[in-house]
Structure formats: structure tokens, C-alpha cells
Amino acid sequence: MKKFTVIFLVAAVLVSFAFLSGCSKDSGTIKIGVAGAHSGDLASYGIPSVKAAELVVEDWNANGGVLGKQIELVVEDDVCKPEVATNTAAKLVGEEVVAVIGHICSGATKAALGIYKDSDIICISPSATNPPLTQSGDYPNFYRTIAPDDAQARLEVDFATQTLGFKKLAVLHDKGDYGKGLAEFAKAMIESDGVAEIVLYEGITVGAVDYSAVLNKVKNSGAEAIIYGGYHPEASKLVGQMRKKGMDTVFISDDGVKDDTFIKVAGEYAEGVYATGPMDTSSNTLTMAANKAHQDKYGEDPGAFFLNAYAATTAILNAIEKAGSTDYDALTKALQSEYVDTTLGSISFDNKGDAIGVGFSVFQVQNGVYVEIQ
Amino acid sequence: MNSTYFIELFLGGLTRGSIYALIALGYTMVYGIIQLINFAHGEIYMIGAFTALIVSGALAFTGLDPVLIFLIAAVVAVVWSASYGITMEKIAYKPLRKAPRLSALISAIGMSMFLQNYVLLAQTSDFQPFPELIPDLAFLDPVSNIMNTTQFIILVTTAVVMILFTLLIRYTRIGKAMRATAQDKIMAQLVGINVNRVIMFTFLIGSSTAAIGGVLISSHVGQINFYIGFIAGIKAFVAAVLGGIGSIPGAVLGSFVLGLTESFGTGYISSDYEDVFAFAFLIIILIFRPSGLLGKPTKKKV
Question: The Leucine-binding protein domain covers which part of the protein (chain A) (predicted)?
Fold first, then answer.
């Protein structure tokens, strides 16, 4: 008897859910999904995006919504797990969302994308940096407001081979995930570009007392510049010992070196070193307004990817308005042709889905400070 | 391969070897006298470097000649580190002298962690820039691409320290007492040697050389943090074992072999495997000579 009661209750719950969701259809709103990790270990990466989307939507709704309709957010948790993300995506499709802000983690994003693609739903991630998501071309419905993992390597390689015109490059790394990952991207790009030659590709030992052997090797290889993937303690040792040896090889590195500690430790030897780092948008008026809105509402500074999610939400709402409809093809066209002012500056998207105007700049140490090179 | 490249790698290897040798001496001496592997030795080296940094920072405002500042900083570092070494022996090792050897070893590891964390709290975990106080020597200018001033000074200092050391152990009373204590502690006591003083002196000398190493290497590398003692200490320990722990010429030889292996391994094969060469070499040597290059095999009486 008990069994039947349970089955009945479950059935009743399911029916009532179906009824509820049935109710919310045709309610005359435009629905935007927000998916990501909202609970679990990685919740701190996902929650700020929800807050960002809410702030943007409140703002737009107060000004009359979009296409004359109010905007409604549908927030779904994927706990950053690919197997959960497919369910999350299916739910959002069932809710008939027009577009999705998310997901947060690259793995979960990839799992969900196939489902959105089949239903012609646009997906803009504020944080999924895995390069193939856009570059493979498998997901024409995918966009992101963050630079992919290999963007720094791309920028370093272009800067070395095109801006500075070097033909012989040495690529060094610290054997760590971050440094080696970047070095591998840089190596693959230099090889496929065919403009310059890699004369040396090596990993160095973190914390070693002396790098003179590997620097002698760099000198012997005739490299004009070193592209280094890693963090500032080794970079300052390398640069210091190199300059003391009288080597004037150009040193180009990454975000891990674009840190004031590097200048403090390397001192005068830091002069002239190039490093890539995220573009500075903190003085942008929209950015300041978004941060202030968050402060006012929640009494604290925003968390990870807040600005990226803010920009993503702004971009999709702008595209809906410019396209004049929620049609997939019209939205695609609007996203790829219109520039929109966001918290990350004025951005648009290329035909693979990566944001134009979002990413990294090259900085150079000049008189003891990092200066952005235009 | 051209010969300049070979010479560069050779000199680079010698510098590394000298650095290891200055630290390895302390390991091997302490082991020779009380059969203790003093794992906190690397920390004494690190404290030497920090003392020099603090002293030179304080003196920087006096407008003294950088060379003079360097010398004062080095002397203070040596005295300070030596007092740390002696205190460490009094607190952590002396009460355990009759205990099993393993207890003293654990005590040494504890001391190492204590000192590391003490410096971490007293200073920061960030890397600190170490001032360049040694001026470039003019006569090295033509060869500055092969050997720079700090490298030269490291090589010369190590050589001088080695010679003084050998003289001290061979020809002085305390040296004789040290050798006697190393051979047989009880017998040495019977003939009137104050073994406790000899052990204290060993720690004093060992800590002083480590401090000299700390100051020189920090000037060469230009940065220090609380963790430098651990990595340098491990490498120096390997060098001491390679040469035969307990043997002073062995520690020096082992350090140079290790430094040169790393330098040539990096230069001619790949720096990815720098540590692999060092440790593979250690294993090969220990297979054929289990007590190290110059170590004497221990005979057990049955």
C-alpha cells in the first residue's frame, strides 16, 4: 500500500511541475538561461555570473526590457560537471530560452553545447577558456567574452615575429602546467606560421641556484628573443643572469611575469622586458558602474568572471535588440557585426565566436613600471 | 661543438660546484664527527643570506662603500649563522647524543621546518631582491661573457675556504682533536679531548661556511626567500653523499662532479632533465662505490 502512495506522490509532483512549466510558457517574456556551477566546490566561479546577469536584466527591465517585452532569467546549476551539464542544458531547452549565459567550466560547456546547437540556442560563456571550443568550428552557436588559453601565446608569437620581426626564437618554460602549456602553444604557432624558427625549446628547473648553463645554450643557439612560459621568480633569475653575462637577448613572457614583484626583484635588469597581461578596463565608466551596482546591492566586491558575465549579458541583449527578433540567424549576424560597449570595453565577435577587443595586451617595463604598448 | 661553449659550460659547472661545496662541507663535517645528517644545515645557509640582506639594507643609508657594506654584512652573517648553528646543536642535538641516531635525525628535520617557518613568519613568503654589492672587477671585462664577477668571486672564495680548511684540520690542535673525535669519541675523551667543545666547534665552522655560501650565492642570484635553503641543501647533501659523506675532500669532489654533470647535461642534452642527470649519476656511482667517491667503506666487526 505504501508503495502506491509513494508512486502517487511522485506522479503528483511530476504533474504539478509539468503544469507549472506549462504555465510559464507564453507569458510574454524573453527568457535567458544562466548556467554554471552555483553549488559545490566551484560555486565561487559561477555565482558572480548569476549576479551579473541579474544586475544587467534589472537594468534593462527598468528601461522597458527588450523588443517591448520583459526579460526573465532561468538559472540552472551544472556543478561544473559535464554529466550534469547535459541535463541542465535539456532543462533550459525545455524552458525555451533564447540564449544561455554560461556555462562556467570548459568541460561542462562542451557537454552542453551539442544540445543547444541542435535547438539553435546561442550560448555565451564568460569563463570557458579551452581553445577548441571556438577554434574547432564544431559549435557555431558558441561565443565567449574571455580570451582563450592560447591567446597569450598567440599575442607573444605575433609580437615577436611581426612587431619585432625576429627570425630566431628560443622557447623556455618552467615545466609547470601553466608555463609549459603556454610554451607548447607558442611552439605550435611558430612552427605552423613558418615565419620564424625555434632554435631552442627547453624546460628549466624551478628553484635552481644558477641558470648559466641554459643561458649559454640560448646564446650558442643564436636566438634573438626568448619566449618564456612561467612565473616571475625564475624569470627574474633568468633575466638578471642573462644581463650580467652581457647578453641583450629580448625577453618576452606572460601574465605570470606581469607582476610588480618581478620588477622589484629583477630591479634594473627588468628594464625592457615584455610581458603580456589582461587589458586593463578598470577605468572604463561602464565597468566602474557595474562594480558599484554590485557593491550597492551585495555590499562586497564582485567575484570571478563578474565583468565577463556582465559583458556577455549586455552583448546578447544588445544583439536581440539590434536583430529585432530572437531568431537564431538574425542573432548570429548581430553578434558578429555589431560592436557593443560593455564592461570589457567595446566588443564584437569573430566568426568563430571569440570576442574581438577582449584579451591581452603587451606590456613593457619602462623606468620601473609596466607600460601598455599600443 | 665549439670550444668557447665548452669552456662556458665548464666554468658554469665549476660555479655551481663551488656553491654546492660550501654547503656540502657542513653536512660532511657534522656527519664525520657525530654521524648525524644535519637537515637543518640548508636553513643555516638561508639565515646567513637573510642576515646579510637585513644588515646591508640597514647600512645602505649610511653611504658607505658597497664593498665595505658587503664585507660587514658577510661578517655579521657568518657570526649570526654560527651562533644559530651552535644554539641549534645545544637545543636539538646535544640532549639526544646518547639516543638512537634516528631520533637525532627526526630532531634535525624538525629544526629545519621550524627555522623555515620562523623566517616565513618573520619575513614574508615573497622573493626579496638581494642588493648587488660586489662591483664589477675591471680585469674580468674582456671575458665577462664567459665568467662574470660574482662567479669569479665564488670560485676564489671557495678555493680559499677549502685551503684554510685543509690547513686547519691538518695542522692545528683543534683540527687534530676533530680528527681524533671523528675516529673514536670515547678514546678521544680518555686522552683528554673535550668532545663537547669539538662538536660545538664543528657546528661553528660548518655554519660559517654555509653563511659564506648564502651571502655569495644570493649576490649571484639576486633574490632570496625562506625556501632557498631546502633546495640548495638537498643538492649539497647529494654532493656530500656522492663524494662519500664524512670525507671533506670527498664533499668538494662530489660537489664539482655534481655541478659539472648538471652543467654539461643541460648544455649538451637538455635542461628538462637537469635533475635526472644529477640523480642518475648519483645512483650509478653508489652502485659501484656504495660509500661514495672518496668515502671509506665501514668495516663491521663480527
Answer: 29-366
Enumerate residues 217 to 246 of chain B having a beta carbon within 8 A of any beta carbon in chain A: 217, 220-223, 225, 227-228, 231-232, 235
**Is residue B32 assigned to a domain?**
yes
Q: What is the total count of domains within chain B?
A: 1
- DSSP codes, B77-92: HHHHHHHHHHHHIIII
Q: What's the whole-model pTM score?
A: 0.77
Write the pLDDT tens digit of every residue in B254-276. 999 999 999 998 888 888 888 88
Separation between Cα atoms, residue A222 and residue A247, nearest integer Å: 11
User: What is the Cα Rg of chain B in Å?
Assistant: 19
Q: Are B290 and B60 in contact (CB under 8 A)?
A: no
Residue of chain A whose Cα is closest to the Cα of B213: A209
**Which of B146, B54, B3 has its CA nearest to residue A216?**
B146
Q: Is B192 left (phi over 0), alpha (psi -120 to 50) or beta?
A: left
Domains of chain A, CATH where assigned: 2-146+284-356 (3.40.50.2300), 151-272 (3.40.50.2300)
Q: Looking at residue A22, what is its pLDDT?
A: 44
Amino acid at A348: S
Per the structure, the complete domain to which residue B63 belongs is given by: 3-288
Cβ-Cβ contacts under 8 Å, B221 against chain A: 209-210, 237, 240-241
Q: Is residue B293 situated within a structural domain?
A: no
- DSSP secondary structure letters along A168-198: EEEEEE-SSHHHHHHHHHHHHHHHHH-SSEE
Average pLDDT, stretch A344-364?
Answer: 89
Q: What share of chain B is helix, strand, coil (3-state, %, to 5)?
A: 80, 0, 20
User: At A346, is the secondary structure helix, strand, or coil?
Assistant: strand
Taking one residue from A and the other from B, the number of pairs with CB-CB distance under 8 angstroms is 97
Of the partner residues A213, A241, A247, the one whose CB lies closest to the CB of residue B262: A213
Q: pLDDT tens for residues B172-216?
A: 999 999 999 988 888 999 999 999 999 999 999 999 999 998 998
Residue B26 vs residues A77, A99, B73, B222: alpha-carbon distances, Å: 59, 68, 21, 23
CATH code of the domain covering residue B125: 1.10.3470
DSSP letter, residue A268 = G
User: What pLDDT was estimated at residue B128?
Assistant: 86
Does residue B275 fall inside a structural domain?
yes
Per DSSP, the three-state class of A276 is strand
Name which of A8-12, A73-77, A121-125 the model is least confident about: A8-12
- Residue B217: list chain A partners with CB under 8 A: 209
A286-307 pLDDT per residue, tens: 899 999 999 999 998 888 889 9
Domain assignment present for B160: yes
- What DSSP line would sit under A290-338, residue for residue? HHHHHHHHHSS---TTHHHHHHHHHHHHHHHHHHTS--HHHHHHHHHH-
The strand pair at A340-342 and A70-77 is best described as unpaired
